[in-house]
Specification:
The chain is an alpha+beta fold and about 725 residues long. The chain folds into 5 domains: about 200 residues, Hypothetical protein af1432 (Orthogonal Bundle); about 130 residues, Beta Polymerase, domain 2; about 110 residues, Beta-grasp domain (Ubiquitin-like (UB roll)); about 130 residues, no CATH class; about 80 residues, 2-Layer Sandwich (Alpha-Beta Plaits). The protein has 28 helices and 22 strands. The strands form 7 sheets. It has a 5-stranded mixed beta sheet. Strands 14-16-15-17 form a 4-stranded mixed beta sheet. A hairpin with a 5-residue loop joins β8 and β9. The N and C termini lie far apart (about 75 Å).
Length: about 725
């Protein structure tokens, strides 16, 4: 422990002569006392772990409060120490940081994934208050990964921790520009997840290293000579790409190790930005460039602040080499990232809180957090944000918007603002109108068109790729579905109550939430709409002693009471009209059956499907035989009228058409001339003379479909046409 403490003090004093060393020693003693008796899997005293984490952070030249937090970060979670104890002895700032790092409560979850998701959710909240929380967390994770090999008899635990590290903590380190930490976390995780692949790549790299040392040195010497001749003070170095990055490239491109041509990367560090571009000009004038492999992150920095010029050329020795050009300050930020903002300069910490505001991705994670009610959904969507190559696009005002590769116009709209995303109706890409589903490319200028009457469409989720867009769309769908199910459920409950001669009010369900295992009265009504709760069961729960008319009639006969006709004169029986389905969005609470394709004008019936609401069938649909034994699932419904009624429905037509030139064109023309729109066409049988097929057509009602069928029957090229009521 003395050696660790001396190393820590020496490291701190190397960049901060004014550090309060007695306070550091006091924190170490505090951790030692409270962790007394606790050991790690290696058998070492537990307090050696926070000391190692603090040394790691001191090597990044972090401020005093962060180092104290690193030393104390496990005391509140794993010992009897309290935040009040820490605040009293080390100040409010340190206590606040320790509070952010500490997992205050153990999350009880059915799955390990659920616990991981909830802990990550809390981490995002904590680091949004102070990014140093994440720095301590990353330091903690690095040391845990360095010592993970001590869990020799728990391979599953090793793999779970390694998977969490490579999926969450390594991308987070990259997001805040800490590439050195990111690469170490990836390599350590790689060794536990794919040990054989890592060993194989290591052996091949060792072989190349022994064979190609002279080539690397000659390339470094050549590049250095060019810089010297141009009067540029440059440092040139060459390094192998990490084993994990090599493996990822092999997986992504599906190539063998021997087919990779840019395993080595060379770095040129100069004094000024002007020299960066001067050096780039020298290299490009001497060597052929590889098309598509030039990136200027100086003029357009990455969202994490990373700045450098990347280019790939056919360099000296006819080798394909990747070269990075940056200033020495840029190199420091590339290794330390956001930690560089907390480094002491001449003994004084930077005022960096304003600089940290540029991390837009963190604000977007918070927006996703606000949208997602389930921790697992939040984790899924943030993984989408963290694991992605970038596409850079521009707004009409010239603002740069960074998106993951494959992003669509909808993603761009949500990146501008959530309200823009919710109201977008179209887009112009480089001045040309384009669908919202269009994938964006680097350099595109995107102009989003909006409307006050627009709302997110469930179909957007098919092509949205950013976590922010997906979370907003899903939230809207969930809310719409709940509103739909509640509207449908209320109508079903009201109808059931009126059939028994009662008026329904929500307050009747007070006290029944426990019986139906839900949290609120609204959940009972929603459950009825979803088909998870039967409306008649709700009525029975409210009036357990009520006897329906059939039961009353039987008792009348036994007790020689008046007949049911006489009974009905005393008690009015409320016979409601069929429940209209207007205003319900198809595909949410109401589904139109594909077996019979019901249309307005058809006599219809609703079948309550568990968890899906109501499925509408025609009265003569053969599928209804499957529900003959469950009459409680049948619902009498009718078509809605007025502005709330759906404008179009899908009708299906089967036909036999002549196999001759122009027949399909004639078919399409007749449908469109009669106001229909073909949405699907499938050929079910082919012969030399005729084709059997079906088409799905958007129509208004049965009359509209019948007009189209009549027009098709009058066409010589079409041998037979019928409305389909099968699949």
């Amino acid at each position: 422990m003395d050696d660790q403490l001396q190393t820590l003090i020496k490291t701190i004093q190397s960049y901060n002569k004014d550090a309060d060393i007695p306070l550091i020693e006091k924190a170490v003693d505090f951790a030692k006392i409270y962790h007394d008796g606790q050991t790690r899997s290696s058998g070492e005293p537990y307090y050696t772990h926070p000391l190692e984490v603090s040394i790691l952070l001191a090597e990044m030249r972090l401020d005093e409060a962060t180092l104290l937090t690193a030393i104390l970060h496990d005391t509140v979670e794993d010992t009897d120490a309290t935040l009040q104890d820490i605040e009293k002895q080390f100040g409010k700032e340190v206590a606040s940081l320790v509070d952010g790092v500490t997992k205050l409560t153990r999350i009880e979850s059915k799955t390990a994934e659920g616990k991981q998701a909830e802990n990550f959710r809390k981490l995002v909240l904590a680091m949004s208050e102070d990014i140093r929380v994440l720095l301590v967390k990353l330091g903690d994770r690095v040391h845990n990964m360095r010592t993970l090999h001590h869990f020799k008899d728990r391979v599953d635990k090793q793999r779970r921790i390694a998977r969490e590290t490579i999926e969450i903590y390594a991308p987070l380190a990259e997001r805040i520009g800490m590439h050195k930490i990111k690469e170490e976390l990836e390599d350590l995780s790689f060794s536990f997840l794919y040990p054989e692949a890592r060993d194989s790549i290591s052996k091949r790299l060792s072989f190349l290293r022994s064979e190609g040392t002279d080539i690397v040195n000659r390339i470094i010497e050549t590049l250095g000579t060019q810089a010297k001749q141009a009067g540029i003070n440059a440092s040139v170095s060459g390094r192998e790409k990490t084993r994990y990055s090599i493996w990822k490239k092999m997986q992504r491109k599906n190539v063998a190790f021997e087919q990779l041509s840019d395993i080595m990367a060379f770095r040129i560090m100069v004094d000024t930005i002007e020299q960066c571009y001067h050096m780039l000009g020298l290299i490009h004038s001497h060597y052929p460039t590889v098309p598509g492999r030039f990136k200027d992150y100086i003029s357009t920095p990455k969202p994490n602040g990373y700045r450098s010029i990347h280019t790939t050329v056919i360099g000296p020795e006819n080798q394909r080499i990747e070269i990075q050009i940056r200033t020495r300050d840029m190199h420091e930020e590339a290794d330390l990232g956001v930690a560089a903002h907390w480094a002491y300069k001449q003994g004084k910490p930077n005022d960096n809180k304003g600089d940290l505001k540029k991390f837009r991705w963190l604000r977007e994670l918070l927006e996703i957090l606000e949208q997602e009610s389930q921790a697992e959904d939040f984790l899924e969507n943030t993984k989408l944000e963290l694991f992605s190559d970038q596409v850079f696009c521009f707004s009409p005002k010239g603002d740069l918007i960074e998106l993951p590769a494959g992003a669509s116009c909808v993603d761009f709209a949500y990146a501008i603002h959530s309200d823009v995303g919710n109201r977008c109706v179209g887009a112009k890409i480089n001045g040309r109108i384009a669908p919202l589903s269009t994938k964006l490319n680097n350099g595109d200028q995107v102009d989003i068109q909006t409307s006050k009457n627009q709302s997110p469409s469930p179909t957007w989720e098919r092509f949205a790729v950013t976590g922010k867009a997906k979370s907003h769309i899903r939230r809207f769908i969930r809310q719409q579905q709940r509103d739909q199910y509640m509207e449908l459920g209320r109508a079903m409950v009201v109808k059931t109550f009126r059939q028994e001669g009662y008026d329904f009010a929500d307050k009747m369900l007070n006290g029944l939430t426990g019986q139906f295992r839900v949290d609120a009265v609204e959940d009972i009504i929603t459950g009825v709409g979803q088909g998870n709760i039967v409306a008649r069961d709700v009525f029975k729960a409210v009036f357990p002693d009520h006897k329906n008319q059939q039961q009353q009639l039987q008792e009348d006969k036994v007790n020689n009471l008046p007949s049911i006709e006489q009974f009905n004169k005393v008690k009015k029986v409320n016979k409601d009209a069929p429940m209209p389905i207007k205003g319900l969005i198809p595909g949410m609470a109401v589904h139109f059956a594909r077996c019979c394709h019901p249309l307005p004008g058809d006599r219809i019936v609703g079948i309550v499907s568990t968890g899906r609401g109501v499925t509408i069938h025609t009265m003569d649909c053969d599928t209804l035989e499957n529900f003959a034994d469950t009459p409680e699932r049948w619902l009498e419904v009718s078509w809605g009228t007025g502005k709330d009624a759906p404008e179009t429905h899908v009708g299906r037509i089967t036909m036999t058409i002549s196999n001759e030139a122009g027949a399909l064109g004639t078919l399409s023309n007749i449908v469109s001339t009669n106001g229909g729109n073909i949405t699907n066409l499938k050929i079910t049988n082919r012969s030399m003379d005729f084709w059997d097929m079906y088409i799905d057509v958007y129509v208004q009602d049965t009359s509209h479909l019948n007009n189209i069928v009549a027009a098709l029957r009058a066409t010589p090229e079409i041998a037979e046409v019928n409305r389909s009521k099968g699949r």
